[in-house]
Amino acid sequence: MLKFPQTLEEMESLILAPPSLEERTLVFDVSFARTGGEKLLAEASIVQWLATWTQNLHGRVLIEPSTPDSASDTLKRISITLPGALLGMLDEQALIDIPRSALARYKDAFFKQQRSWPDLNVQDRASLLCLDNIPPTIGLPIQLYPVGHPNRVASREQFENLVDKLIRSVTAEENIRGAINDHRDRLTTILHELFKNNHDHARTAVDMRALPLSIRGPYARFYSPEELAYTAPSKKEDKEGNEIFPDLNQAERYASYFVREKVAPAKRMKAGDPPRFLGLLELSVFDTGPGFAATYLKNKFSGSSVQEQFDAVLGCFSTGRSSTSDPSRGYGLWKVLRDLRELKGFIRVRTNRIHVYRDFAWYTDMFMQSDIVAPEERMMDWRRGITQKISDDYGDMRGAHVTVLIPLGDNL
């Protein structure tokens, strides 16, 4: 049996080179539900990964250690973090020794509890789950959909309130200052447009058939400087005196920009103080639908090259372009990039065989348009960075996951 993945790299490896079918059983340790994993971006990425593992690769999950609790109690106990909550959304074929009746009771209790979100306790992560495989009166959160209107996403004004609640539910009041207050309107626009796209394209297959599993939603998490310290370890050298650089992915390298010594942990601000880094805010929108490239290419998706999929992903975000009949729905990646540039933010997109990002801390002014002050609609390959050739060695991931990272602090 295999250990449940806890990093982006472990997830990617299992999708790209899965074991034989008889060996595709993962062990979910209940201790993981308590810690939730600490690696940057890993927790929310579990959504599309778990759907890919169980739906595309027909993998299964065993929850351990076994306890005298009923299956319903076990599911409730592990639901305190997103990976644990997701397991209860699967069907009985994907879970070992969890009967259908226990899953039905769990879903009913989970979505009733979700209606009261957020509670008064500030934690470091929060999410809202939509499950399209059950009646909308149960599976669609009232925070995202007006009551009685399952085909209409909450208004932008309601999303402004949602963004405020997400931020305040994952970080203490003293961390909400500086640029995050100045640009809250931009964060609302980004999250609202991403979720509208999620609603339009991720609830069904491209041919409008129902999906066997459709999970969608937003996620927020706050990472303190202490949690991110591993991205900027003390300098090490080999025997010849050459510096040994840490093995970081692109998101971790982005975080290291702020964790370095010259951007010290927060202290009370005084006139003339240097930048003070309070932490990173993650906002993600995830789904288990057909994916950006499949939605854009439609019947041309089968047999499409990685380059064609990459061009399709950019097409999904291009200015004024939309795959719906509503001409007002073309949002434009350049607007997202423009807002993230102002925030020194970061964006990651994982969908189908595409894995790309854009970093506005290390590369603030790269790919700028000459006629307007806005970034070009360009993204960088997750492994190769700036390249003319997109990597073709990513596994086919179900759905779409878009993450933005925003630094919190002063004078960043």
Descriptive notes:
The chain is of the alpha+beta class and 412 residues long. It has 2 domains: 1-113, no CATH class; 115-237 and 240-410, no CATH class. The model is unreliable at 325-331 and 368-375 (pLDDT under 50). The protein has helices at 8-16, 30-35, 42-56, 71-78, 82-87, 100-114, 136-139, 156-170, 179-182, 184-201, 250-259, 292-297, 306-317, 333-343, and strands at 2-3, 25-29, 60-64, 125-127, 130-131, 215-223, 236-237, 243-244, 276-287, 346-352, 354-359, 380-381, 397-410. The strands form 3 sheets. Strands 4, 5, 6, 9, 10, 11, 12 and 13 form an 8-stranded antiparallel sheet that branches. Strands 1-2-3 form a 3-stranded parallel sheet.
